[in-house]
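User: I'm curious whether this sequence folds into something compact or stays loose and floppy. Could you predict its structure so I can see for myself?
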Amino acid sequence: MNLAITPENAALNARLEELHTRFLESFTRHKYMVEDESPILTALYLEELGRLQLVLLEKQTEVSRLKMKIAMIHAVLNRNEKPDLQRIDREIHQKLDGYYREIAERSSQLDAASKMLGSLLSEEEAKKLKEVFYVLCRRLHPDLNPQQTTQEVDLFIKVKAAYDLQQLDELQRILLYLDMRESSDFTSQVTDEKQQRIEHLERSIAGMKEKMSQLESAFPFTMRALLGDEAALAEKKAEIQSFIQSQEEEIVKQQTILDIIVHE
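Assistant: Here's the prediction. I'll summarize afterward.
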């Protein structure tokens, strides 16, 4: 038997409906930030600035190598000994091994970024993916459906996996399956249950808002404005290129010094 729709019940039902909507918006937004926007922003940053920064790191490492070699040769000469250039080169390589590994890692990240940006869904497909995911979350998310069966829990895991893999067809198949079943109805819950659900959803929403705020203040989200500003991006590129040029000039200078020392 359905409960009488008293003013109190009506108010609780309205509040629950509002919180359901807000929770879904927060949940899907947070998931999008973590699993879609963050990788895309990182990839865009690497594409726009990462290659220049990699070149700069390579130049800086070469300057360090030349300076270390000059210093080590001087130390040997000051002892009136003949420098073993091969041994010195091996020692320097060991000392700079961390930089060389970082260069290789950044190069790999750049390749991965290019591959990712080349395999993104179209704007229409991405929009449809998010729409279907939103609907499925409303039907299957455990915070909105506390009386879930084991089968429904497993189904929600499949939904999240399909979304992460951008499998729109799989999400649509799951939705079609659910359309044949009756969705849960929170209006049949008693007053105490509704109040508990309200408090739980309020805490969940507040927690996700805090997480999103933390994301916004960290990389790569702090780069969003820069990546969207062509003038600022061009200025940043010019700045890095200027640093690269100065390092190239330093390389020429240190190499000249090294050549003089070696051939004395």
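Summary: The chain has nine helices and no strands. The chain has a mean pLDDT of 85.
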